[in-house]
């Protein structure tokens, strides 16, 4: 049997697994994937790999006693064995007071995240895409190091109350760092798509080359507060720390940036500039995502921050029941709304500022304020009178995305980006921010 | 990646526990299965020989085979609840070959037959042949003699998997109970335990069987001031260790008393969490630091991470050469600086060494993942840069005719590459206690435990936080501080090192989940030091209002 099952094949397999169940309730999650990658450095391929994985997880419960077992072999004997194993573990487990039981059938939105162009990538196609990238940088005495990583797979689930869900998807991430041979310049580009047909490695590589050559001869500016234009790749790694912290329970418990004194939260309060709207939508054509969460809940369009106001937090089913609210699951994608201005327009409209193309080594400094630290990397430029004047040396920053989104000057047109920290894909606009805090200089190129 | 990233990555922070579907974690098994013997060593030799012969027949000039069984048990709790108990086993075989001067790698899960390992070898050969067209220079391997049939076992006193789960759950729940009774609002605690059973064979004539154990007891205590809504946390002062359950044996000789108790090779988790709950509350009303220059006294439970980021990583030869340029970055410690023989990495006090042999350390093994016998060597001698960390296909670049044994893969399914050895700061040669070190400091901060960390892609500019900060005024500890982080430049920082306590204070810290590579692999590594003084370091205040 193939590793990537069709909806009908997945359904038949899941029905078979459930037929072995003797527990009060049983829920089965199934997945299969094929991944391939090429890594290159110093202008030649360094490693390459391909992996195939399939996995089936059975959760059996007797009352509030729950057991989980997994297996990667799908013959009848193995399937029955994994169900028995989950039941044995459930019988031995202490009662879990937070266990909620399985959901009944759900209605899901229709989304399309599976593209044949990506599914059909072969080692030869992968090598060709990398060869195009190497040609772009290779003609100019530069050192290129990059990574191309593609995925096709599906996930499915079924439970003893009749819930069934299936979602196939594809993804390709490409990233490239180009450095001058003498190490005085460095440029970066990253691209992420569900549809491989949209990936032009030669065009992307040209951007990295341009940033690399443009970053040579960087001048030092004094650290301090500056107006910055963050390219979406730079903004994503700051904003995702806000996305990761939308959990209602932490907020209710008083240990989140969304907490307020006395066990209250900032739900319903304006926390950032009114032009900020952050939402999730599994049907977005540029960033399609699974219409269901891992526990079977339906993913809908959800506004997390609307016009600067916190509209929703993410709940586990247990915590939502305890609080008597709708159990909105943690989202499968995140989109920040923007305007229509291009990055070039935004630079043109800036009198003095710094263009930040990438940020690196982002770490939380204070979870209470979401204060983050990290550095600029691979192309940072000084803007004067609407033009890029010269490259500048890299800075370390200490800044909170909450403070940053209060100091918003302008938003551009959102584009799909890959987080250089988590590899997640988002839709994020370029943004102009005033008084962004750079706290020291770095000699790194 | 460190523990906090790992928790986020696994969703543990949010209370869930889903492992990525990959070869590192494998499948879940019964706890008893963690004690069952794996494939017999004689069978492993047959499986390995089948792969070695198959690759040779297809034209490989070099082949190595790794047969790995990776066992993991994680016990996860919060307050009075067990959130999860995870037992996983991953078993498979990875084959690496050189054909036409190019590496090729292929792996196979659950391989029990010679036909399977031979097929993996043939796939590795096919991949090497395909990629050879893209190579400019053939791979050059440092010579390595074969060791025949040998074995190595971590010298543990008590296999953690032999301890019943109930005992582990009881320990964590009593730890949580102690935290709550001493003023914590919330507490999360976790026990991580790992056993790597690794078999290595190569065409050099080595058949190496190794048994590696690691353990890490951790917690986070949260205290909240309901009036102001402020919250503070305090994490464990344990270290992840290359030990068995014996690390949790309470032993007065392993305690370092002082402003707070720290631990050497025996960890008293109950005592530490009790202190943590009180200290998290104390942090709520502690004085916010005044930014400026301070002399820093850094405890080994903190300094390990600064060593890791500012010495361990920049002296990895693959970074220096550009192989990690697209992700982790390159290094300021370029070959010309090393060749000059006078690059001033630190002050004369600073002696930093790499080592893969120290007992109880996370990096200790008998041989690395390409069959090289492990050893200890100098990286920075009396302040001068003298060497890097390299593997067999890099040794010639730094004029060495043998590898230093730094090769590691996190799974049978991952290709081995250069990873950090234990990198440690040698203790001071003249007798010096922490108390006497503090006596001479006029304006300083004493930092214990690791916190926030960030460093640039060439390892110049860094910023570190911590768990506990104490103000030093005129040679005396004046009280607790908060909102502290220090920023410096690697070379400037190590040149500001003026004093290192003697060997009586020497302890290990370490990283259980250090990330590197694309796709990312994790490794575990220790860093030893004694308490050390650095003069005139820039401290910032991290408090903000939102």
From TrEMBL, chain A:
Gene3D superfamilies tied to this protein: PmbA/TldD superfamily (3.30.2290.10)
Domain Metalloprotease TldD/E N-terminal: 26-90
Pfam families: PmbA_TldD_1st, PmbA_TldD_2nd, PmbA_TldD_3rd
Entry keyword Cell membrane: no
Domain of life where this protein originates: Bacteria
GO molecular function, one term: metallopeptidase activity
Ranges where the Metalloprotease TldD/E central domain occurs: 120-211
PANTHER family: CONSERVED PROTEIN, TLDD PROTEIN
Protein's name in the database: Putative Zn-dependent protease
Organism, scientific name: Larkinella arboricola
Top-level taxonomy: Bacteria, Pseudomonadati, Bacteroidota, Cytophagia, Cytophagales
UniProtKB/TrEMBL annotation, chain B:
All residue ranges annotated as the Metalloprotease TldD/E C-terminal domain in the record: 292-539
Keyword Hydrolase in record: yes
One GO MF term: metallopeptidase activity
One Gene Ontology cellular component: cytosol
GO process annotations (BP): proteolysis
Entry keyword set: Hydrolase, Metalloprotease, Protease
Top-level taxon: Bacteria
Signal peptide: none
Metalloprotease TldD/E N-terminal domain location: 64-128
Family per record: Belongs to the peptidase U62 family.
Name used for this protein in its record: TldD protein
Lineage summary: Bacteria, Pseudomonadati, Bacteroidota, Cytophagia, Cytophagales
